[in-house]
Design a protein that fits this description.
mainly beta; 6-stranded antiparallel beta barrel
Amino acid sequence: MMGKKATSYNSLYCFLLLLIFSSCASLRESPKYEFSSGIFKVTSTGSAAIRAYVDVEEDTLILSTVRDKGRYFNTDTASNIVIAVPEVQHSPVQHVYTFSKSSFDLDVLTIPFKYRPGTSGFPQQLTTTFQGAIYIGARKDIFRLKYRPTPVGDFHKSENHFGYSVGFFSGLGATTMNEWVTQGATPYEYEGVVLLNGVAGIVGINNFTLGLAVGIDHLFDENRNDWIYQHKPWVGLAVGLNLN
């Protein structure tokens, strides 16, 4: 009976593991973290902030003013703001342009490291078993464009991205089950499947993303009442898998 249940849990675990990694592959193709056309709050050195639709072309940005909370655009093309942004400028460029936007975040996370405080006479530990989760949160992205001088006297375009997000996650993970973590109730060892839920904060800088997660685990099988970590809080390192 125990073997059949373990096989069932392992099959569920493998299926969801495959689903998460398949989702990661498609999310990596998303342009969300690239500077692309959309509605932004735009600021530049020495100028007041405006809300505009920014049409991002290869060497040009075309700004069209947004009216009425983003539902209407300025249709008078003669009043559009056109900013030339070639890769190289041969004269000094004083302006630094900043484009910021808020969005709803739906991502896939892994939690490669999980720290558990000591409990029931068992010392604190750092676990490295697989943890994968779906994450939902509120996000803010900031793109900064400026020109940096080079030793040969010209100026090269520099684009930087910074983003942060706070939200909730839910997913699946694995945990080692044995007599030590069940207070002697389980005289064998196996990999249990847990449901993990919690909150996370994520920071992204260009193509690098990292975050902190705080959550609790729920063991699915019949040993959950003896598991010393059932519903006990943990702290983990969260990594977003959908950055290009």
